[in-house]
User: Fold Proline--tRNA ligase from Paracoccus spongiarum.
Amino acid sequence: MRLSRYFLPVLKEDPKEAQIVSHRLMLRAGMIKQQTAGIYSWLPMGFKVLRRIEQIVHEEQARAGHIPMLMPTLQPADLWRESGRYDDYGEEMLRVTDRHKRDLLYGPTNEEMITDIFRAHVGSYKDLPLTLYHIQWKFRDEIRPRFGVMRGREFLMKDGYNFNLTKEAALHAYNRHLVSYLRSYERMGLQAIPMRADGGPIGGDYTHEFLVLAETGESEVFYDSQITDLTFGDRAIDYDDVAQCQAVLEEFTSRYARTDETHDAALFAQIPEDRRRSARGIEVGQIFYFGTKYSEPMGATVVGPDGARVPVHMGSHGIGVSRLLGAIIEASHDDKGIIWPEGVTPFHVGIVNLKQGDVSTDSACEAIYAELRARGLDPLYDDRDERAGAKFAGMDLIGLPWRITVGPRGLASNKVELTSRRSGESEEMSPQEAVARVQAIYAPVLGQAAPA
Ligand code: 5CA
Assistant:
């Protein structure tokens, strides 16, 4: 993309309404625009990151064998009357009446609807296990929407639902999700720690939240510091292997890590004092096993191996896709702006032309731009007629992890500069070498794509 033709409405001043750094930087970097409390337009660069995150989620769900679909945002109230949640959900549910005076609601989650789909089409244990998911906008009429996309009213969620004949099978699905979530967050450059949590309005007493540690997090968390040493990495995993998935769950959940809802001071006190930590965290996902809470009242049953109908065991699993943008920025920024991890960056590399209009500088930039694109990379070329200082400040603000700086002085000896946004370090090299280096940096990121 050429910056002169892009739509990147950066703000010069800090917006007053933003209380936390991710909200401030998303507004300043021209990623979002608030339309009303807790409801945002996603401007092109914000939308680009949102799609990168969605893509990672889709790929990791595909890898785990989960099946994508799409359910609507508006749902009939009658489904929620069946589960009893129409009244229970309270004021967070946005209720709408259509022209025929039928009650609808803007879905805050989809347990009822997916259970309805299941009961209409699945009748035998032979069709199990089944895991369906979608990535769709949700609405929760939060009393205090705040912190930008972190606590929105309309927000994008990946929500998945699994159906199983037995509790054991449902727990394997739970473990599989835990593994796929660990992989997803790591690809986004995040450490998200699974912590024992509370089921809240979704229900079930077996649930983990995934938390990214950050001072601005809304959750209070308590954990054993050893847990922060764990990484999933690129180890091979067979998602059908029950013991292997169980072993990952045990590895990542056996140390103390809980949100304040389930915190147990006596258990916590048993951890050696120098490892006890209390901190703030951002909840970027949650997985639940809730047994037959929805299948029983809604009649989602299958004929079991012995011929009798039994309600299915279910779980659900959510990732806060739009919240993740805020969480990633909270975890990765400095006083100049955002520092995108390579896995989610809106553009792979920025090209800064120090002397726009100079024939040889322009043509060197054009060649680098074309060569990067030919290699499957997505560069942002700052081809505006602006001062170098303004171009650098803009690049630092929007946070592309790598920058190639091209100026007449360097070009005289066939050199450009490759700069890391994270370390600030620069290295001089030929334009060809800079392209090859950027390609090598992104090879592992681009190579992680799984067939969706
Ligand atoms: N049905 C289950 C799992 S599919 C469910 O709704 N789970 S949830 O309530 O925990 O939401 C899943 C994720 O959505 C949360 O972990 C959080 O990351 C994100 N989320 C929840 N509320 C908001 C909100 N108001 N703004 C942004 N993201 C949110």
